């Protein structure tokens, strides 16, 4: 049990000073007797609607961000969301200060950077936990499935505590624009902040590109990492690096396009890519099991941390061929001598990068099968249609996660970016679309390449409020 004093910003604590707190909660269903329930108005749900449920479950204290006259036993605090991370960190005795903490943001590449850093660290003998879009691992080996790219503040601190119990030396985590905007990482002691990339995404939530940029910048200007690693291969990245270097000399640039503190160039090799890396005052070469320079760029961001942590280049070169890549990141499947790639690409930049890398590696005709999510950023749909047409020989448009939006509307939006409709096939049933495409490949003697984009590692399709089991890789292997 812990004293309530960790909430010292709150007024009226005197009335509750004799309370000992055993747990803290954001979800009323998880409230334990003697715990605190934080009732916060969210983007989609309002925790204040569940106060009575939390009380019924034995909550010792309710802290709410919404004042309602006449309800006793509740402390009201209008800055609750932006302080929750501080409260959670204090409750768990500031666990992020007891472990090297690496936070990664970027439109694309967060999961790759996070999971490969953990993989490399563990191969080098430094136990590293991680939190990614796909998984949480308290030790870099055992895995629990994740539901959110960036969990809430309480869960983040709980996970760090679990990592410390496993004697992890590092923890690396994704910092999504939603998570940053909603202050989920407030209160963390961040050793390294990383930007992997920046492009158009999530404008349905942020309302515009400037707000999206501001959310990303929070990692670097509000949380103030001790060291920053910035990929400068976007205008946003260049500008961010220029501003950060004025404030913190411990800021380092990464690029696959121009001179940088960590600059990578590539050659094809039997395994995938041979990478030559200029890393500060060192130069060395290593190999990776990927054809994607962009995935390699994300790994270079992780290698930059290892170099800054004093790991020697020979040790890094020895283990890169063993690096485990996240599921659904340009994952290759050989099917009847045809090459199929499964990729999470669900933004214009990610789709373009995936197709360009495939085109760079293969001479055969490339087919691209993809869709766009419903009830999300509609502006990117025609852009993705145009990119698919530009870099593919044939395009199959299908469903992604239509959610509660009509599929015909989504497809119409995609088609506005495509000029040559003769090179397009439409099949709203994603499973049937994949099976039919593979069947066509099987009947054709000419070898073809297929990119199945948009869902990657996901194991479901969200249709009309229902989640149905669905996994691209499973459908491909069974076709």
pLDDT averaged residue by residue: 93
The CATH superfamily title of the largest domain: Mur-like, catalytic domain
CATH architecture of the largest domain: 3-Layer(aba) Sandwich
As a percent range, the share of helical residues equals: 25-40%
Q: Main beta sheet: strand number and arrangement? A: 11 strands, mixed
Please tell me the total number of domains: 3
Oligomer: single chain
Shape: globular
Strand percent estimate = 15-25%
Describe the structure.
With 479 residues, the protein is an alpha/beta fold. It starts with a strand and ends with a helix. The chain is globular, with a radius of gyration of 24 Å. The chain is built from 15 helices and 25 strands. It folds into three domains: 2-78, MurE/MurF, N-terminal domain (Udp-n-acetylmuramoylalanyl-d-glutamate--2,6- Diaminopimelate Ligase, Chain: A, domain 1); 93-322, Mur-like, catalytic domain (UDP-N-acetylmuramoyl-L-alanine:D-glutamate ligase, 3-Layer(aba) Sandwich); 331-478, Protein-Tyrosine Phosphatase, Chain A (Alpha-Beta Complex), CATH 3.90.190. β8 (128-131) and β9 (135-137) form a beta hairpin.
Compile the SSE list and pairings.
Blueprint: E1 2-3, E2 20-21, E3 23-25, E4 35-39, H1 51-56, E5 61-64, E6 74-76, H2 80-91, E7 100-105, H3 110-123, E8 128-131, E9 135-137, E10 144-145, H4 153-165, E11 170-174, H5 177-181, E12 192-195, H6 203-206, H7 209-221, E13 227-231, H8 235-247, E14 251-255, E15 262-268, E16 273-279, E17 282-288, H9 293-308, H10 313-319, E18 331-335, E19 338-343, H11 348-361, E20 365-370, H12 380-391, E21 394-397, H13 407-415, E22 424-426, H14 430-443, E23 448-453, E24 460-463, E25 466-469, H15 472-478
Parallel strand pairs: 3-4, 4-5, 5-6, 7-11, 7-12, 8-11, 12-13, 13-14, 14-15, 19-23, 20-21, 20-23, 21-22
Antiparallel strand pairs: 1-2, 8-9, 9-10, 15-16, 16-17, 18-19, 24-25
Helix pairs in contact: 3-9, 11-12, 12-13
């Amino acid at each position: 049990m812990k004293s309530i004093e960790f909430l010292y910003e709150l007024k009226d604590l005197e009335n509750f000073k004799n309370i000992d707190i055993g747990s803290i909660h954001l979800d009323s269903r998880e409230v334990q007797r003697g715990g605190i329930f934080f009732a916060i108005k969210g983007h989609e749900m309002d925790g204040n609607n569940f106060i009575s449920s939390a009380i019924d479950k034995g909550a010792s204290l309710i802290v709410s961000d919404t004042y309602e006259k006449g309800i006793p036993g509740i402390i009201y605090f209008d800055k609750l969301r932006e302080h929750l991370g501080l409260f959670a960190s204090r409750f768990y005795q500031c666990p992020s200060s007891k472990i090297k903490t690496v936070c990664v943001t970027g439109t694309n590449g967060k999961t790759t950077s996070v999971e490969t850093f953990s993989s490399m660290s563990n191969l080098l003998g430094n136990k590293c936990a991680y939190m990614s879009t796909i998984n949480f691992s308290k030790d870099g080996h055992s895995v629990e499935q994740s539901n959110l790219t960036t969990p809430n503040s309480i869960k983040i601190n709980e996970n760090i505590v679990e990592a410390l119990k496993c004697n992890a030396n590092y923890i690396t985590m994704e910092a999504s624009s939603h998570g940053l905007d909603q202050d989920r990482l407030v209160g963390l002691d961040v050793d390294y902040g990383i930007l992997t990339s920046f492009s158009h995404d999530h404008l349905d939530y942020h309302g515009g590109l400037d707000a999206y940029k501001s959310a990303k910048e929070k990692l670097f200007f509000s949380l103030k990492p001790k060291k920053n690693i910035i990929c400068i291969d976007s205008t946003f990245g260049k500008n961010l690096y220029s501003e950060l270097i004025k404030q913190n000399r411990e800021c380092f640039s990464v690029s696959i396009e121009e001179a940088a503190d960590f600059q990578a160039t590539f050659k094809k090799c039997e395994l995938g890519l041979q990478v030559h890396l200029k890393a500060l005052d060192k130069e060395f070469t290593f190999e990776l099991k990927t054809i994607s320079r962009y995935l390699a760029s994300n790994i270079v961001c992780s290698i930059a941390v290892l170099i800054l942590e004093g790991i020697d280049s020979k040790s890094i070169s020895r283990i890169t061929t063993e690096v485990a890549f996240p599921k659904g990141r340009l994952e290759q499947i050989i099917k009847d001598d045809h090459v199929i790639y499964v990729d999470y690409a669900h933004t214009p930049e990610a789709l373009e990068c995936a197709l360009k890398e495939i085109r760079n590696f293969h001479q055969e005709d490339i087919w691209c099968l993809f869709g766009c999510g419903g009830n999300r950023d509609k502006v990117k749909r025609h852009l993705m249609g145009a990119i698919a047409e530009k870099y593919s020989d044939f395009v199959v448009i299908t469903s992604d996660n239509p959610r509660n939006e009509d599929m015909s509307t989504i497809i119409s939006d995609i088609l506005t970016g495509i000029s040559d409709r003769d090179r397009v096939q439409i099949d709203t049933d994603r499973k049937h679309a994949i099976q039919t495409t593979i069947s066509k490949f099987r009947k054709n003697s000419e070898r073809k390449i297929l990119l199945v984009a948009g869902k990657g590692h996901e194991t479901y399709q969200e249709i009309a409020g229902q989640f149905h089991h669905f996994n691209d890789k499973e459908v491909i292997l069974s076709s």
